[in-house]
Amino acid sequence: MSETPFSIRQGLIATPAIKYRDNLPARLREPIFQILRRYLPSAFIWERVQAIMNPYGIDEMPRGAPVAIAKEEDTPDTVAAKQALMNCEWFRVYDVVEDIYGQLVYYEREHADPETEEPRAYPFRTALNEYFKHVGIGWQLADSQIVTRGDDAFEQTVRTAEDELTSAERITAASRVKKAVQNLSARPQPDSAGAISHATGAIECVLHDITGQGMTLGEYLNRHRNLFPGSIQKALHGLWGFSSEEGARHGREGTEPSRDDAEFIVAIAAAVTTYLNRKHPRS
Q1: Where are the beta strands (DSSP E) in 22-144?
Q2: How many of the other CB atoms lie within 10 Å of CB of 77?
Q3: Are residues 163 and 137 in the same domain?
Q4: Alpha helix (H) ranges present in 88-216?
Q5: Half-sphere exposure of 281 (CA within 13 A, CB side)
Q6: Which domain holds residue 211?
Q7: What is the spatial distance between Cα 235 and Cα 240, in angstroms, rounded to a whole number?
Q8: Residue 43 lies in a domain
């Protein structure tokens, strides 16, 4: 039985556009808190909130207007945890989410009894990511980190590249793709230049593995013309030119590619690595 509703499978409901990356309004924090409460007791949530926001016990916790709490959940721990999460800086919410997910993963790996305890880490991550997607939050919980989320096409392209490169044991190239996404996730400003550098580096890693020669992408394109059809090669020359000449790869004072430019290059590079990986499988 499919878990995806009919309307989504048939494309009748479009994925909401990404609206929230550098902010998180209070009204969007309420469901995050409820997801936390679904999988964890309030006392544990409050403990982790304090560990993140007041690690030395000397800082004031975020305060604001009184928060609404259901009568059956009206405990000091619930009130304190919700008060902090509803009034902290937006990125602190994600700090707490990462920490709690890491705690769940560690507990299930080291201490949980699979015979008597239901897993919580994966369902928690799934519920959170579904919510982020539903309301247009441009982040997702992947592995143990909150990282940037692009549109569906971007996500599918990058995920395919990482999975297939890893399966082919082209680990360095897969790591470069992953680091490119992490650079896009950097705050307060995304590291667009770093993302582009890692993305083109992923292509170079695969080409190095194929040819046995270490070169830049531009040199591969000039010396190994048989690796790509002419039209694709021409397009990749343009990609290399932007990556190197626009300051993204080799650096130019006062030049920083936009996030949209960087995301475009990362998606193209991920698609190229997948193409090369399939066309030239390892022995």
Answers
A1: 139-142
A2: 16
A3: no
A4: 90-110, 121-135, 152-167, 171-184, 192-211
A5: 5
A6: 150-279
A7: 9
A8: yes
Q: How many domains does one find in the chain?
A: 2
Q: Which residues, including other chains, have CB under 8 Å from residue 38's CB and lie 6 or more apart?
A: 124, 127
Q: Could you tell me if 202 and 175 lie in one domain? A: yes
* Distant-in-sequence, close-in-space partners of 110: CB < 8 Å, separation ≥ 6: none
Q: Which of 93, 116, 142 corresponds to the end of one domain?
A: 142
Domain's final residue, options 142, 170, 193: 142
- Using only C-alpha atoms, what is the Rg of the chain? 22
Taking only the tens of pLDDT, the chain with its 283 residues reads: 446 678 866 777 777 888 998 899 999 999 999 999 999 999 999 999 999 999 999 999 998 888 888 777 789 999 999 999 999 999 999 999 999 999 999 999 999 898 899 999 999 999 999 999 999 999 999 888 999 888 778 888 999 999 999 999 999 999 999 999 999 988 777 888 899 999 999 999 999 999 999 998 999 999 988 888 888 888 898 888 888 876 455 555 556 788 888 899 999 999 999 999 999 998 7
Nearest to 24 by CA among 120, 106, 89: 89
Residues 48 and 114 in one domain: yes
Is 246 a member of any domain? yes
Cα gap 55→37, rounded to integer Å: 22
d(CA 31, CA 14): 21
Same domain, 138 and 185: no
What's the pTM value of the predicted model, to 2 decimals?
Answer: 0.74
Residue 9 lies in a domain: no
Own/partner long-range contacts of 80-84 (Cβ < 8 Å, ≥24 apart): 80/46, 80/49, 81/33, 81/42, 81/45, 81/46, 81/49, 82/33, 84/49, 84/53
